[in-house]
Amino acid sequence: MTQLGLASPIPTKKSSGDPKGSPQCGAELSEKLASTRTTQRLSLISRHLDQRLPLPGLNTPFSTERDSQSPDDIEYKPLDRTDLSSTLPSATSSQPESPSPNISTMLSFSPWPTMRESTGGPSHVAPGFVKTFGETLTLVRKLFQSTNPAAQPFVISGSGTLGWDVVASSLVEKGENALVLHTGYFADSFAKCLETYGANATQLKAPIGERPSFEQIEQALKEKPYKIITVTHVDTSTGVLSDIKRIAEIVRRVSPNTLVVVDGVCSVGCEEIAFDAWDIDVVLTASQKAIGCPPGLSILMASPRALDVFKNRQSPPASYYASIGNWLPIMQNYENLKPSYFATPPTQLVHALHTTLSQITSRPMAERFAVHAQASDRVKAAVAELGLKQLAAKPENQAHAMTAIWLPEGLTPPDVLPGLLKRGVIFAAGLHKEAATKYIRFGHMGVSVSDPARNDVDNAIAALKEAMAEAKQAKGL
């Protein structure tokens, strides 16, 4: 990448025999230098706003995905965003009209799909917003298929990760045991969060693409008492689906006081969750995946059992912002249409969530789950037709929200992702630390599958077939 620096002020030397040394010329030179510095600075800032450009080697799990972008070793020229239609690939042509389509027109099939736009932002205590927030909390109950008035929904400003902190700081005390069922990257992270607050986290691990067996879970619960058991419903790193209903049944039979905590960030809105019927204690999720809102909201559902555990703590909560005790009266007041305050809610995002949940819950949730299952079947059939395999090899382990696909020997994500990108489609690279360079991830959830007027999934499958053929040809495979 071309290095841009900020020029230092250069003093001008006066000389009676050199007109360039005159005060007027000195001023002109200073003005020119200032203009150059401004141009360089603006160019540098513009680079941070253009998503085509490679980012620094940050310590994040997405480095493989970033490395798949083409290097930027030419003079920076901003994208022309005035005519979006010219950058869209033709619906009838197998080749795109432009090799570098506008990033704003991409169809994203990474495990974080297209977001909805939010609306305006009134005061958080204005009567209209209080009504909207109260209705939103009631809609969250419908989303989780809960009718128990003693259970409590929470909608808090933050990412899905905040849900981990709420659980770890509010429901587990220092020195208590937590059993973490491991199906990929996010179990490791949840365990670290629990340990941050002083819990003893034991991970029950399975090979990549697998999940702990029911027999292993039962045996672990018999060996020592656990305050909570956590399970990632769909692990975004592997595409593995866990059987929440069966796990909850085992816990209630073997260790009935253990809280069942579900990380549903990549499942809520597309995989079946029956909060009351399955006797779950906490489901945590975020606004941006199958729910289809912009990111920024942490959404939780807590059972009466979980709330009682919090109320009977022997020590104060280990977090202030993530404390159930601070948020519980706020949520209860808003749901009863009473303005309340602990921390200012993001009013625009709450309006967006209200709109999305109104649409999602306007039809039976069973229909939504069936639509996602049908789309998943089409994707997985196409993957098999290409001779590719999934990380989750067994059908019962395969999520309906996404598909993690092993690449053929000799191919890596940077060989395939650019081919998808130029066809107007975005997939994600691998995320599991043990195999990140060997697979890609295809997210199929939310509006991309629930809107019958769209052909997003079929277009993405076609792009995958073409990109794979192109990558193999380029590698001589």
TrEMBL record:
Q: What is its EC number?
A: 2.6.1.44
Instruction: List residues of the Aminotransferase class V domain.
Output: 131-432
Point to the regions of Polar residues compositional bias: 33-43, 84-108
Gene3D superfamilies listed in its UniProt record: Aspartate Aminotransferase, domain 1, Type I PLP-dependent aspartate aminotransferase-like (Major domain)
Pfam families reported in the protein's UniProt record: Aminotran_5
Q: How is this protein annotated for GO cellular component?
A: peroxisome
A molecular-function term among this protein's GO annotations = L-serine-pyruvate transaminase activity
Which cofactors does the annotated protein need, by name? pyridoxal 5'-phosphate
Top-rank EC class of the record's enzyme: transferase
Any single GO BP term = glycine biosynthetic process, by transamination of glyoxylate
> Which keywords does this Swiss-Prot/TrEMBL entry list?
Aminotransferase, Pyridoxal phosphate, Transferase
Q: Where is the signal peptide?
A: none
- Which InterPro entries has this protein been placed in? Aminotrans_V_dom (IPR000192), Aminotrans_V_PyrdxlP_BS (IPR020578), PyrdxlP-dep_Trfase (IPR015424), PyrdxlP-dep_Trfase_major (IPR015421), PyrdxlP-dep_Trfase_small (IPR015422)
Where is the sequence biased in composition, kind Basic and acidic residues? 64-83
| Record region (Disordered) | 1-123
Q: Which family does it belong to?
A: Belongs to the class-V pyridoxal-phosphate-dependent aminotransferase family.
Protein name as catalogued: alanine--glyoxylate transaminase
